[in-house]
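Intended use. Records like the one below are meant for learning the mapping from a protein sequence to its folded structure. Do not use them to infer anything beyond what is encoded.
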Amino acid sequence: MTSNGYFTQGRNADYGYECAAEYLLKGRDKTDRPFMNNTRVIREDEHTIVIRLHTTDIVTLKDNGDIILDSGGWHTPLTKGRMNMFLPKPYRLVADKGMWFLGTGWDKEDRKAVFENGLTIHADGTVTGGMSIEKFNYQTQLKKDIRKYAKAFAKQVANQKIPLPDGGDCWLCSMYTQEGESLGDTTADNHLLSHIEEKYYVPSLLTNAMKEHAMGILIHDDILAMMMLCSNPEDVNVPNHYKEKGMMFKESTTKEVVKMLVKYLERRLLV
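Structure written out for the chain above:
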């Protein structure tokens, strides 16, 4: 403690439960005491003390040594800075591209978990509640693969290379339950990953994404027309203006197909 009654200054100083309890006992109100600007130390019950920034309990200190973090949705430098004051050595929160990571240093190799509300550092130094770095790295790469696949798929659509669904499609994409779900959505088999790896552009996958994705009727008709023209370039049901459109049409179609495919695939693969 410093002479003014505040905790020892500096990141990773002794800001644990016992020090917080001692700090409260030295105040007029033994259950609620200001700490720093807009920050208070508050006793919740006989086993729990919280650090409240504005109206959010950003740090919960338990008498068993657990430290629980919760940003309340406020991913600000101030929130992160206050949290870091209460983390035990060698842990710290670092920000990178809008995300927070719990680690033991500044380098990517030092990261231990992706911050999520409820992330807990236990008395023995173990961490629970945050996404593992292994899962984060896997999902980061998968997002890149999904986007690359969606762009290639969309290019095929714009170039009239994707026909209407037929009996040669992937069964898990093209067959449905009585409730209207594709068989792929009812199984534990992530067959969509194989489509991405094999660069298999399944017409039924595209129509499934179209059913799920909110879009204007004109965009919907544009995409459907491209598929119809692939199946039959002379299809009399396709208005002539679709056959005459050039790159402007193809570019707008490509953007919409990429958007819907990315959303459709991420909902199913990023779990």
